[in-house]
Amino acid sequence: MTGTMETMTMSDGATVAVYHAQPTGERRGGVVLVQEIFGVTDHIRDLCDEYAAEGYEVLAPALFDREHPGFEADYSGEGLARGVELARQLHPFELSLKDVQTCIDTLTPAGPVFVVGYCYGGSVAWFAATKLHGLAAASGYYGSMIPAAADEEPKVPVILHFGRHDHGIPMDGVEQVIAKDWPNATVYVYEAGHGFNSDRRKDYHEPSAELAKQRTLHLFRANGG
């Protein structure tokens, strides 16, 4: 790991852990990287380091720190159940957006800021593009909340990544997002399942993960990064 865990005071006064990775070489911009339901795991920290290696200063807030400080879980059993409980019952989604906004505001003075999110964070990325301010662009991976929230037009360019074989996000919901045909939104569908970006998951699909990463970097670079 090249970044460090730090703390940040959020808009409600809460102190939340944040993984902070500094850019390698010339700074291209800032990235707020939003976790899955499993917390700021080693996988999330690895992703932060990868974007830092591309020239981005990265912040990944531990969104569930108020309810479960230091929460990190694997993809099965009790950890999965706890992550679902935190995301769906205990942690207000609006607080996640507010924490992301605080991270955006922190990074903004130094240049353009982007959001990328995975699973739970993929939904956060979509809402960031439609509701938050100070963003240049956003990339959301397999966010299950997106189909039900596709009626609001994104304020900034956003790309979305879904797996055709994702049993948790049926393709008819993805097709509804595509049918909105928002000028600022592009939807990509991969021959993969849910979580295809994570090499810790059984549904990891390296070609799809690499293509989605390159599309995300292209989006950032096309919008000031």
Overall radius of gyration: 16 Å
**Mean pLDDT figure:** 97
Order of helices and strands: EEEHEHHEHEEHEH
* Shape call: globular
Please identify the structural class as seen in this structure.
Answer: alpha/beta
What is the strand arrangement across the widest sheet?
1-2-4-3-5-6-7-8
Biggest sheet, open or closed, and with what strands and sense?
8 strands, mixed
Number of helices: 6
Strand content: 15-25%
Which key features would you list for this structure?
225 residues, alpha/beta, eight-stranded mixed sheet, 21% strand, globular
Task: Give me a quick take on this structure.
The protein is an alpha/beta fold.
Task: Give a structural overview.
The chain has 225 residues and is α/β, with parallel strands linked by helices. It is 36% helix and 21% strand. It has helices at residues 42-53, 77-90, 93-107, 120-131, 171-180, 206-222, and strands spanning 4-9, 15-21, 29-34, 56-61, 113-118, 137-141, 158-163, 185-190. It has an eight-stranded mixed sheet, with helices on both faces. Strand 3 (29-34), helix 1 (42-53) and strand 4 (56-61) form a beta-alpha-beta unit. The longest helix has 17 residues, at 206-222. The chain starts with a strand and ends with a helix. The relative contact order is 0.14.
